Amino acid sequence: MTEQPEEPRWAALSLASTIRHDGDGGVADDLDTLDGLRAWLDEAAPLLPGAPRWEASEALRGEVRALRGAVRALFARGVRPGPVSSADADRLQPADEALALLNATAARVPLRQVLDWPKGAAPAVRLEPDPRTDTLPASLARAALDFLAAPDFARLRACTAPRCVRYFVRRHGRQEWCKPSCGNRARAARHYRRHRGERDGTEGAG
Fold first, then answer.
1. Which of 32, 46, 151, 184 is paired with 200 by a 20 to 30 Å CA distance?
2. Is the full-model pTM beyond 0.90?
């Protein structure tokens, strides 16, 4: 999973990253099986503090994958006019449908007002889901909505390395790739193209 703070909204980026390069030139889906869903739930658990342990099922897997499709569609909308991930660029869900799905799923679980009043500080009210009725889809949908509305979203980019299909949040102004290995692969590809072009030009001149 992409390195990120342990805050609920980052579960949206983790969810989107379950679509990834498979190492052989194709695309892998980490949620393709129930075991894959279970592994991702264990990995993403720190991003959803206080959440219950969810029982993996085919119905839940279908809902999570549908939410992922909505998240990736809105990620693509957010990074344009820059490049979008090649994994689903030709079959993205319409953005209005994606947003409607997230809103409807997030609304399944009522929020309650909770008063915080730390010693030496002013009282403040926050909203949190009713713990008796929380569900994974609603938690993920709320995380996605929070991520889309957060300042971090303005720095979201699609990795431009060959074959990479991940989205990432840029940590500095010149960052092009989601991780160092992608940067190494991109530089190697540029080097190969440059030298092939020089070789082809030399051969053509003869």
1. 184
2. no
